[in-house]
Design a protein that fits this description.
Number of helices: 42
Shape: globular
Distance between the termini: 22 Å
Strand content: 5-15%
Largest sheet: 4 strands, antiparallel
Low-confidence stretches: 1-88, 106-119, 448-457, 652-658, 997-1001, 1122-1135, 1226-1242, 1275-1309
Structural class: alpha+beta
Mean pLDDT: 76
Oligomer: single chain
Strand order of the largest sheet: 4-5-3-6
Length: 1309
């Protein structure tokens, strides 16, 4: 069977769930199953009454057999026109209808197996024998309704996703996370309003540093007034009741000093952290409550099972059953003399496994997993290519001669599809043979000596035929009480040095085994169990290297954009130069008249008859690259501020008479200015000393820059449309200045976009790399994905910018050579908020709305357009792109909703917002919008567009809860640094007298100790940063104390698990558990009461029902009876919920009694089959049957959906290898010949296809020869001899025309 490695196998026997049988029940109707189920007695041993192996192979041929029985070639040759096509369409429609009926029957029997690709569309090994079955939109809609959560019809307002535990805990916990912090960030936004107001009404950031969007106005760097402004003293002076020496800011009509502002922001910051911590606490409690509720409602296999490691290589199932059954019986005291369990019985039947060694024991199932991970991985890799193979097969059928496609057959496209199919099949064959070679080398496979025996071999016996070493075992106890005792005993001896003191009875065949709580079977990545820790560590290091390379790319782009931005900032003139220093040089005095402005000549002609172009031409001829501009009063060109002369001051040539700079004592000035001049000029205070002004210098190009910058501000004031119109009418004198400004701002936007794009790449790369780390369980894999995607995204967004723009003096040489911390900002200065803060805010906005916008674009635009384009062609059968149903199904959905990546995305956004919110208060409103939008948009898309995700546990949320407290720590660290900057807030000492005296020391003594500590901290440096005089400020110290408390508390809780106190607490808990167990025992019988154990709420003893017996669960009302008390004179009693909900009643739950206590038990609503055993309608569901409805009920790999077809493929490979060994063919398989061994006949996709084509060709040659003999009429008296075919031509399969070469010709060998 060439397609055995895929879950798309036509003959994989997927309808059978019993490992002891290879038959299938898919061909039986529901009535037949019901009849056969009613005839069986539940108390007897059950046997599978399925079909034989030959009948199993006919399962797929029944569907669409009408099409397969027709001779389309003959019909098409006999009929032509619409009549033939309509008849063919009618037969196809009949096949589609029959396919739907078969699907419904398979669903009713619980035996639906990927019928979209194989059974329905006949894409199995003999695909070319049947015509193409076209895909339909109706089936795609059915598929969509099946995959969407609640069928895609639920109202958005009615569905509470935080309570949707029917799809596992992962999905509702994600929505609970989003909802919790949407509310938390709302309250934190309210507390951010004071910071936003103080920032918005400030004027601290200079105009040349302002970003184009205006984010600078919403940062604390804008609080107050610019000290370099000439009106600073007047604008910042306090006018109210405050001290005139203090600096004040005004919000509306209220006046606040900078010290008051700093204290207000500190208090708001403190309260925001408390709200964040309350949100974490609420989320932790809700998480624990939801997990407990889900565990109480849903019974799973892990409630009864343990994982056993470090077992001997030759361990068998019987040995595991004997060891654990003898240790933990429940009908008598166990090996530690613990009391038995009341009404406990050993395993009475083996319907769940079919293995007789479990009967009469206390172990319901034992599974030994062997070291076959390499084979599983190889055959799973093979599955990845099966979709391409099936798609090529469907295209071949679509273009074949018997197609019902509207365009008819297409030989050219048929050959192209065939070529692609052969390429895909060759890749699959190579993987198959490689895995079988490894099996021959690593495992001992015995030959099959008896063919009749080989045909009757079960799957388990074929698996056991592999003499591979046992890796680990899985033991499923019949009662959860046995499992709990086992875990409690072995947990003390799982690690060294305690393992050396393991009691002799707990030692398994001389081995100190390790026993842990087993995960669910479908959560285990079985092929990774045998991977060594060293290999996993190497892969994790490789993941870190790849992530580092991607982060380097983003760092390089941000660094270059930052350098270009800094280079442009040097060209932008300083505001004080344009307003005061340069006009003072031309006026030769700082006492400037009002209305001084640098202007250019008017557009028309002046009184002398010259135009602006004439002036500019005269300047450019004297000073290259210059243009004409003069300082005037009130902007009137006829009223210059001083005397100008081109002829007297400027000179012909490349340079002026002196320099481009105005100097002190000059009376006539050159009106020609240039943006390219490199001369350095001195201010007027350098020649004429002034106590209020310092001597500075500036470049001569600053004069022209002042004019161009004023023109740029004038352009921005006209709006977008006015800007576009004025740009067209501007002269070319400032063109270079405008270009540089535009490039610098575009680079800032490009850097933000680059960060978002790199985050998208990091998200998918980290997900793939995390899977490549070969984790043992899916929970571990998803936890690694969350951590890696979150860290990579957060570092790329938040940390890279600090490294690129920050500056640290005295840094190590390696940092110097790598240009790390080589930026322009050594602190969070006001200019940092305008340059870096605006970039971070823009990045945050793009990171929020970019992914959401892409999702909405796909849902509202791209997907509808694609469906509108494709649906008519699919209905009319004119499409050449959609050849099979799976491709049409993909049109209706947007993929699977990935809660793992969504959690990582929200976590990165939350950490980013928390990091910079102290200085950029806009981060909190943006975070609130982000969580609110993600909450509602993801809910809408999940109910309307995305396929519901597979059931997941709470591992991802546990990781999120561990990381969240560090967001507070990071925020407090940044807050302490930002609030302690001298350029933002003035220094204030903490008033120690306001601290209450809780000790015996008096206030003076406390104050003395505090002052001594402050004095020591002042000179202390940490990591090249001076921190002593920062944390001692009055508006910083409370935040620092809170940060220390959070860090110490978090560290203590994490360290407690590795401290002696923790182990001492475990001993106390173990002792208390045994005391409670003795109290729960019946005084007369000395047996434990199941109800008393369940009432204790021990998570290990959540289930009391036997695994192989009828399932029951004590009702909540029984637990509340003992707790219910009368209050308020008996008028108020504890609220009691109804025993069963409406949903439970519809699902077949009924109230019954277990002894004296009410319980709920589930009945079968229809006759069905579980594990090959018929179960009549109305019978009570057994525990393993209840588990099978929503999960896996066995650790047998043949019963795990994701591994079932893989194990069947391995089984077929083993059988083929064993058959080869029986025939003496133990050499490597030859895929090209297709005739050397049974492996190539049955395993090779291309070999089997070529053999069938050769057989058909030979059959056609034989028919042609027979036809020639039939029509041959020899002349009378003469013999006619048919000439042999001596042609040397070969067909596409490498066989000479007319030759006979197939496996069937070698039967005699």
């Amino acid at each position: 069977m060439s397609d055995s490695g895929s879950e798309n196998n036509n003959n994989d026997g997927s309808a059978n769930d019993d490992a002891e049988n290879t038959g299938s029940h898919g061909s039986k109707s529901q009535e037949e199953n019901a009849q056969s189920g009613d005839e069986k007695d539940d108390n007897e041993n059950y046997e599978d009454d399925g079909l034989d192996g030959d009948e199993n192979e006919e399962l797929g041929s029944e569907i669409g057999s009408d099409l397969g029985d027709m001779d389309y070639k003959a019909y098409r040759s006999q009929y032509s026109g619409d009549e033939g096509v309509s008849f063919l369409d009618h037969k196809v429609n009949e096949a589609i209808q029959k396919r739907r009926e078969e699907r419904e029957r398979a669903q009713a029997a619980g035996e639906l197996a990927y019928m979209e690709k194989i059974v329905d569309e006949k894409l199995g090994e003999d695909f070319e024998d049947t015509p193409w079955v076209p895909p339909t939109i109706e089936l795609a809609w059915e598929y969509r309704l099946e995959k969407l959560y609640r069928g895609g019809k639920a109202k958005l307002s009615k569905v509470k996703m935080t309570k949707a535990t029917d799809v596992g805990l992962g999905l509702p916990m994600y929505f609970l996370f989003a909802k919790t912090f949407a509310i938390a960030t709302f309250f934190m936004t309210i507390l951010s309003v004071p910071a936003l107001l103080f920032s918005y009404f400030g004027h601290r950031i200079q105009s040349e540093d302002e970003d184009a969007i205006g984010f600078y106005q919403l940062s604390i760097g804008n609080i107050g007034h610019d000290p370099e402004s000439k009106d600073y003293e007047e604008e910042s002076a306090c006018t109210g009741h405050h001290n005139e020496d203090l600096k004040c800011v005004e919000v509306f009509t209220l006046e606040f000093t900078l010290v008051e502002v700093a204290n207000i922001l500190m208090v708001c910051e403190f309260l925001q952290i408390l709200i964040f911590l309350l949100a974490i606490n609420f989320l932790e409690k809700r998480h624990a409550r939801m997990k407990a509720r889900a565990d109480g409602r849903t019974c799973s296999l892990s409630d009864y099972s343990v994982m056993v490691e470090n077992i001997p290589p030759d361990t068998t199932v019987e040995q595991l059953v004997e060891h654990f059954s003898n240790l933990y019986p429940l009908d008598k005291p166990d090996w530690k003399n613990r009391p038995p369990l009341d009404q406990a019985e050993p395993v009475k039947h083996v319907s769940n496994t079919g293995v007789s060694c479990h009967k009469g024991t206390w172990v319901a199932e034992a599974t030994v997993f062997k070291k076959i991970g390499s084979m599983i991985r190889a055959f799973k890799d093979k599955q990845k290519y099966m979709d391409d193979l099936l798609r090529c097969r469907a295209r071949m059928k679509m273009y074949n001669t018997d197609t019902c496609h509207a365009d008819g057959p297409n030989p050219r496209k048929f050959r192209k599809a065939e070529k692609d199919m052969i390429a895909a099949g060759t890749t699959i064959d190579q993987l198959t043979i490689q895995s079988l070679k490894q099996a021959r080398k690593k495992m001992k496979i015995t030959a099959l000596t008896d063919k009749s025996t080989a045909q009757k071999k079960t799957r388990n016996s074929v698996y056991e035929q592999l003499e591979a070493d046992a890796l680990c075992g899985f033991v499923v106890f019949n009662y959860a009480e046995s499992m709990a005792r086992c875990l409690e005993d072995y947990s003390h001896y799982n690690s060294y040095p305690f393992k050396l003191f393991t009691p002799k009875k707990m030692i398994f065949r001389g081995r100190h085994i390790t026993v842990t709580h087993s995960p669910e079977p479908d959560e285990i990545v079985w092929e990774n169990l045998e991977i060594s820790k060293r290999t996993k560590m190497y892969r994790r290091m490789l993941t870190a290297v790849y992530a580092f390379i991607l982060l380097l790319i983003g760092f390089a782009f941000i660094l270059q954009s930052g350098k270009y931005k800094a280079k442009f900032d040097e060209e932008v003139p300083k505001l004080d130069m344009c307003e005061t220093e340069i006009p003072a040089l031309f006026h030769q005095s700082y006492e400037l008249p009002s209305g001084v402005e640098l202007v250019r000549p008017d557009e028309g002609t002046d009184s002398t008859g010259r135009t602006r172009d004439d002036y500019d031409f005269e300047c450019s001829s004297l000073v290259k690259g210059s243009f004409y501009a003069i300082y005037t009063i009130d902007g009137k060109f006829s009223q210059p501020l001083t005397n100008y002369s081109i002829i007297d001051v400027c000179q012909y040539g490349s340079s002026p008479a002196t320099t481009d700079c105005p100097v002190a004592g000059q009376s006539i000035f050159c009106p020609c200015i240039s943006t390219d001049s490199t001369d350095v000029c001195d201010t007027l205070s350098c020649s004429i000393p002034d106590d209020d002004r310092e001597c500075t210098d500036f470049r001569a190009s600053t004069i022209a820059g002042c004019y161009c910058y004023n023109q740029l501000l004038d352009l921005f004031s006209t709006g977008v449309f006015g800007l576009l119109s004025k740009l067209q009418s501007q002269d070319s004198s400032c063109e270079a200045f405008f270009t540089n400004y535009g490039i610098a701002n575009v680079l800032t936007l490009a850097a933000s976009l680059c960060t978002v794009v790199i985050n998208v790449g990091l998200k998918f790369t980290m997900k793939k790399l995390a899977k490549g780390e070969l984790h043992n369980t899916i929970d571990e894999e998803h936890s690694a994905i969350v951590v890696k995607v979150f860290l990579a995204t957060y570092i790329n967004m938040a940390v890279v910018a600090l490294v690129a723009f920050g500056y640290v003096k005295n840094k190590p040489d390696i940092a110097e050579s790598a240009q790390l911390f080589d930026g322009d900002f050594a602190d969070f200065s006001p200019r940092w908020y305008a340059v870096v803060g605006s970039y971070l805010t823009l990045t945050f906005i793009l990171q929020i709305f970019g992914p959401l916008g892409l999702k909405l674009l796909k849902y509202y635009v791209l997907s509808p357009c694609k469906m509108c384009y494709a649906h008519p062609k699919i209905n009319n059968r004119t499409s050449h792109k959609y050849a099979m149903q799976a491709d049409v199904n993909a049109l209706e959905l947007g993929g699977v909703f990935d809660t793992t990546l969504h959690n990582a995305q929200l976590l990165a956004l939350l950490f980013f917002g928390m990091t910079y919110a102290p200085g950029l208060p806009l981060m909190m409103p943006l975070s609130m919008f982000a969580f609110t939008l993600y909450l509602n948009i993801d809910k809408m898309l999940l109910l309307r567009y995305y396929a519901k995700p597979p059931k997941m546990g709470d591992a991802v949320m546990r990781v999120v809860l561990k990381l969240l407290p560090w967001a507070c720590v990071i925020r407090l660290c940044i807050a302490c640094w930002m609030y302690s900057n001298y350029d933002v807030f003035p220094y204030t000492e903490l008033d120690i007298t306001v601290i209450p005296n809780f000790s015996a020391l008096d206030t003076e003594r406390v104050s003395e100790l505090y002052n001594n500590w402050v004095e020591k901290q002042t000179e202390r440096d940490i990591l090249f940063f001076n921190t002593g005089d920062r944390i001692t400020r009055g508006n910083v110290f409370p935040l620092f104390v809170l940060m220390v408390i959070i860090v110490v508390t978090t560290f203590i809780f994490n360290a407690m698990k590795h401290s002696p106190i923790y182990y001492f607490a475990k001993v106390i808990h173990w002792t208390w558990t045994h005391i409670q167990l003795n109290k729960a025992s019946n005084g007369r019988t000395k047996k434990l009461s199941p109800f008393e154990i369940a009432k204790r709420g021990d998570p290990l003893r959540a289930e009391m029902a036997p695994f192989t017996g009828d399932y029951y669960q004590f009702l909540q009302s029984e637990f509340e009876k003992s707790k219910r008390v009368s209050r308020c004179l008996g008028f108020i009693t504890k609220f009691v919920r109804p025993d069963l909900t409406e949903e439970e009643l519809q699902q077949g739950w009924r109230v019954s009694y277990q002894g004296a206590y009410k319980v709920k038990m589930a009945q079968w609503m229809r006759t069905t089959r579980v594990a090959g055993v018929g179960r009549p309608k109305g019978s009570i569901q057994r525990t393993y049957e209840l588990i099978s409805l929503h999960g896996c009920y066995s650790y047998n790999l043949y019963k795990i959906p994701h591994y079932k077809t893989v194990m069947i493929a391995i089984q077929e490979g083993i059988e083929s290898v064993a058959a080869d060994m029986e025939m003496g063919l133990e050499n490597d398989v030859d895929l090209e010949s297709g005739r050397a061994s049974s492996t190539s006949r049955h395993i090779s996709v291309i070999g089997s296809y070529r053999n069938r084509q050769i057989g058909k060709q030979n059959s056609a040659v034989e028919k042609e020869k027979a036809k020639e003999k039939l029509w041959e009429r020899p002349a009378k008296g003469k013999k006619t001899k048919v000439a042999p075919n001596n042609s040397d031509d070969e067909n596409m399969y490498g066989i000479a025309n007319g030759a006979v070469s197939s496996d069937d010709s070698d039967d005699s060998d």
